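Bug #77: duplicate submission created two jobs. Keeping one. Sequence:
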Amino acid sequence: MNIVPAYQKERLENTLLFFSLEHYKKTKRYPSQTALYKYLAFFEFRYLEKTGIMPLELRYRAMKNGPVPIEIYDKREKTGAFSTVEFEQIKTKAGHSAFIVKPNGKFNPDYFSDAELEEMGNLIEIFAQQWIGANEMSDASHEAILAWKKTFKKQANAIIDPIDNFERGILSLPLESLSSVEERFLTHRKIAELAG
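Kept job's structure:
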């Protein structure tokens, strides 16, 4: 995502805010950067499986702890990079450096469809628990996100191609054998290529 239209930027900012705010409301702890990255990856890849479209169109890198959205990761230390969240560097009890994500703003649901809001809410219900930490979320992403598995197996830290989230080699299949989700993905991908 090289050029981010204003609407897409607002969607991203509100998604960051939603997950950091709702996680805090349920757990009374700010999410770690890793937890936020897993929320984003689950949102995008689960939604991709259901609809054929990644709602935020972020690029992910197949890192050891699961998919990491590069556009967020690369800006986390830059002051003011995001208007709705702040990445704060802290020292853990073990003395390591880590980032937590603090919400800053009022969530605007108008940027999302009902299906997207439902998916985001489902992820909070699943993962915003006192006993679930970033490690558990990372482990879950390793199991659930096929595109991460395929990419990490080929080359750690490589860019994840969302097409790898489909079990079948959909590029080589005849059009009539594609599911509606697969067809929508390929159509969206072709439009993005032509626009880019």
